[in-house]
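User: Here's a protein and a ligand (FE2/S2 (inorganic) cluster). What would the complex look like?
Assistant: Let me lay out the input and then the predicted complex.
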Amino acid sequence: MLFKRYITFTLLYAGETYKIKTFSGEYDDLRELINKEIQPPNFGRCDGMGRCATCMVAIQAANPLNKPNLSLSCQLPINDELANKVFSILPYTP
Ligand code: FES
């Protein structure tokens, strides 16, 4: 019998906290998960082609004194590297 190894992390958006439980392969990337679970307006407009920068997230540093790292969520595959991290979904500003 095969067991799925779950990956848990936190998403922050518009004052809400979302505790995510997923597994490798459930979504192509973090952008897809965010669009299916939260659906922020105008998020990930180029469908993961890396051209629009509307899928930006800030990855909270382990040390709160350090600045968060910014990343395109379409470039973040769902894998163990996301485990236990906190991601803030940045609002789209045209
Ligand atoms: S979805 Fe367009 S850059 Fe990520």
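Summary: The radius of gyration is 13 Å.
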